[in-house]
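ASSEMBLY PREDICTION REQUEST
Request ID: AP-0331
Submitted by: J.K., bench scientist
Number of chains: two
Total residues: 534
Priority: normal
Notes: Please return the full assembly, not individual chains.
Input sequences:
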Amino acid sequence: MIEIYQENILDHYKNPRNKGELKNANIRQKESNPLCGDVLEYQLLVKKGVIEEIRFIGSGCAISLAAASMLTEKVKGKKIEEIKNLSKEEIYGMLGIPLTPSRVKCALLCLKAIKVAAYSYLHEKMDEETF
Amino acid sequence: MNVKNIRQDFPILKRKVNGKRLVYLDSTATSQKPKQVIEAITDFYETYNANVHRGIHKLSEEATEHYESSRKKIAAFISARPDEIVFTRNATESINLVANSLDWKKGDEIVTTIMEHHSNIVPWLELKDQGMKVKFVDINDDGTLKMEQFGKLITKNTKLVAVTGCSNVLGTINPLAEISKIAHDNKSLLLIDAAQSAAHTKLDVAAINADFVAFSGHKMLAPTGIGALFAKKSLLEKMKPFMKGGDMIKEVTTESATWNDVPYKFEAGTPNVAGAIGFGAAIDYINRIGIDSIRQHEKELIGYALKLAEKEKKMTFYGTKHIEERAGILTFNFENIHGHDVATILDQEGIAIRSGHLCAQPLMSRLSINSACRASFYLYTTEEEIDILFDAFKNVRKVFRID
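STATUS: Completed
Returned structure:
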């Protein structure tokens, strides 16, 4: 009926993967869209430069939470260095739904959180505008 | 009041969105414009566009006459005098003018309420740096003000009581005369944020004894970028202009300048002439329909919507059910569904509602929510459109599998 609320989006929204606290995390990164009221925190356990575990906590709309959930599956087992190259296009591809301009920021909250996490772990500077 | 005929005056209502006829339920954000307003603006640009006040030529005289005639119409609309009306960009600028121009002193207090729009909170918070104090009156569970708190929060240091005529979230219509009496008994000034109320309920500044009233034209059929501040002449005369430049002066030398008379000393630079002319046409339109008829129509609409709301499960509807104190604003949430998701689904049906924090984050915190959905009505809204809204709720339930 409505293109953006496809089955996989609703599935991740209703049954989020890797949701909850990660007690032994060595990176925690919180980002928010104050205008929407969306809040997201990633908690990662990185060993030898590899993301061994990742969890998230947060609240928001279906798009932002589904994207946050899907991204945990996408990045688990990846090198933290690789996160720097994650692109917006990859997030759009991961979601696979048409996004109107006003909903793009919902989809990209997870990308910003994970990239800020990676850059700060690597003690490198990130362009907060373009990320 | 013939809504069918009124709708004919609003060209945009014929528009289709996502293949469906537009159902515009976001008039609280901005109202749509009747062709009479659009034509008044076009007529200005096509036949007498000129700068106001200084020109000697015919066009400038005509432009000045229309600009000043709009000021008179706005004044008459709220039972004020023309020289008590300052043109601004919007209600926000009007409130900022007061915040910047009043003779504040350290220790002064401002009493406002938790239901205010950011425009009636942020300018006061800024004054805290100068040693002023801001206090908030709370709300009852039904979204009405805790009136007894005014007496407790107002002290001898309270310089200003700043309150909205109507909550843009809850739709509560506040008892302004009562608040005015409490403020003035304490020798405090009263500022009314009428952005949300002026287009929907009769406002008589003389009867209420308001000191300041802030308006936005665009919420009352006029174009964006034009608003007004009403202030008692005695106050305007004492206040200092916070913008300086052309048109607001009497005489300028290389050493100094003397300010123009009120209200002109607050209108620095070339004003939004077309906007003011559009504002005048909007007031004419509202007067032709009658503000009391508009209020009656919206009362019927909110009564109808609240009745339909009773049947909805797993939804929260905010605000009082007492329609005498309630404007045509229906704010709600589906259990565990973000407002933006609801707005996206309704948009597919051509229905325009607002979602998010509704420019009232302190109120959102008070209600313990991050966001909400808001459908708002105006003189062109029909019961049929409210039926379409409630019918579309079924789509939200279907997508998110809410039973």
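REVIEWER COMMENTS: The first strand of chain A starts at residue 27 and ends at 33.
SIGN-OFF: pending second reviewer
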